[in-house]
Design a protein that fits this description.
The chain is mostly helical. The chain contains four helices and no strands. It has helices spanning about 1-5, 10-25, 25-35, 40-70. The longest helix has 30 residues, at about 40-70. It starts with a helix and ends with a helix.
Length: about 70
């Protein structure tokens, strides 16, 4: 509305939009920075997921092998 009303140029609108995005995603940016500085937590979470996936995959592979006669 300010842009269309005049006296509010493209550069000002762009800056306002940038500030809005920074404010809106501040929490997400903080979390991202935290995890990028603590990669061992990401590795730990990935390992937990891998363990869960191995259990499911082992069951599926067992059923496939039985069906194929292995």
């Amino acid at each position: 509305a300010n842009y269309e009303g005049g006296n509010y140029g493209y550069g000002t609108a762009k800056q306002a939009f940038y500030e809005l995005l920074v404010a809106k995603y501040a929490v997400e940016r903080e979390r991202y920075n935290y995890y990028m500085n603590n990669l061992e937590e990401i590795d730990g979470a990935l390992e937990i997921g891998a363990k869960k996936a191995r259990v499911v995959a082992a069951d599926v592979l067992k059923r496939v092998r039985v069906k194929l006669g292995y």
